[in-house]
Amino acid sequence: MKKEQFVKDINVGDKIDAPFVVVEKKMMDFNTQKKTGEKFMLLRLRDNTGTIKAVLWERAEQTANYVHEDTIVWVKGKTQEYKGVQIIIDEIEAIAEDIDLTPFVPSSSIGSEELKKELRKTIKNINNKYLTELLNTIFEDQKLLSLYLKAPAGKKVHHNYLGGLAEHSLEVIKIVSSMYQLYQDRINWDLLVTGSLLHDIGKIYEYDLNSPSFQMTDRGKLLGHIALGEELIRSKIDRLSYFPESLAVEIRHMILSHHGEKEWGSPEVPKTFNALCLFYGDLISSRLNQVDKLFFEAETGEQEENFNWTNFDPLMGRAFYLPQEETSEQIEGSQLSLDNLTES
Q: Where does the source fall among the domains of life (predicted)?
C-alpha cells in the first residue's frame, strides 16, 4: 500500500482517496428532529504532514464498531470549507494488513543522529563523575538509547512526534542555561543538566512506540511517566558504587516534582533551587511548543474560525492573536500620514 495524498497538500474541493490514522473519534447526536436518536461521527485524521477534520454522516454507528482511535483507515470522500478544511466521508475502511507507519507518524525536524550527537556532547561536558556515570549507564544501554531517541514527549499536547522526547529534553537545557547565568551561585549546573535529560525518561515506557497515535501502555496508564522514570533512575543508581545518597535523593526529587504542582500530577512540589528551575524550564519548553503548533495550524490553513486568531486551546483556555504583516504599500501609507502630521 502506497500513500500518495498527504494532509499538507489537501485543499477545499479536493477528492480524497487515501489512508490516514485516526487520532480522535467522537460520536455526536444529530440536533435535527428528523434524525432524533441517530448519531454521526467526527474524526481527526493524521499523517506525517499534519491533521485534518473529517465527518461521516451516514452509517456512523455501524462504522464505529471497526473504526477506532489508533486505526489506520482508507478514506474516500471530498473536502469542503467548515471552520477550515474538512473531509466529508463517503467511504471508510479499516486497514488490517501490516504496513509501514512512517507516512502516518510525524517526526522531529531534528534527525535522530543529530539528537544523539547533541546528547553525547552534553553528557561529555558534565564534570560531576557520579552524574556522568549515571548518564553513561543509562545511555550506553543501546535499547534505552533507541527508545529515548524515538519516543514522543506527549500524545497530544507538546512535542508529540517521534524524537520529541529527546528534542524537548535538550531544549529544556537551553532554556535553563539562561537561569544558570543569573544564579550561578545557587544552581548545580551538572545536576540541572542531568535532571533536564532524565525528567521525562519514563515516557519511553508510558507510550506504545509502535502505536501510530502514541496510545498509552498499561504501565503508562497505571503508573505514569513520573513514577516509571523515578523507578528507572533509582534502579540504575542502586547498581552504582559509592553514589552519594544526598545526590541520589536530589535527582529523584527533581524527577518527582518536575510537574510543579500536585494538581498537575506531581507527587511532590519543587523544594530545591534546581528542581524549581527544572519545573520552569520544562513548562516553558512544553508551552511554547504547544503554542507553536497552533501558529503552524494557522499558517497551513487548519484554524477553524477567525483567520486573525489561532484555534482555541482548551488546556490553556485561549486562542492566540496572529500578527498581520503590513504590505509595503501600507507601510508607505503610514509613513506618508506621519509626514503630514509632522508638517502640520
A: Bacteria
- Nearest to residue 288, comparing CAs of 267, 269, 313, 264? 313
- The band of 288, judged by pLDDT with boundaries at 50, 70 and 90, is very high
Which of 57, 87, 102 represents a domain boundary (last residue)?
102
Amino acid (one-letter) located at 183: Y
Stronger pLDDT, 249 or 11, i.e. the higher one: 249
pLDDT of 332 higher than 70? no
Query: Cα dist. 54→49, 81, 83, 116, 270 in Å?
Result: 16, 11, 12, 37, 43
Does residue 318 lie in a domain region?
no
Given 3-state DSSP classes, what are the helix, strand and coil percentages for the chain, each rounded to the nearest 5? 45, 15, 35
> Per the structure, how many domains does the chain have?
2
Based on the domain organization, do 190 and 116 belong to the same domain? yes
- The answer to whether the beta carbons of residues 78 and 14 sit under 8 Å apart is yes
Last residue of a domain, one of 253, 272, 293: 293
170 with 281, same domain? yes
Indicate whether 301 belongs to any domain: no
Q: Do residues 160 and 154 touch, judged by C-beta distance below 8 A?
A: yes
Q: Do you know the residue count of the chain?
A: 344
| Domain of residue 55, residue span | 7-102
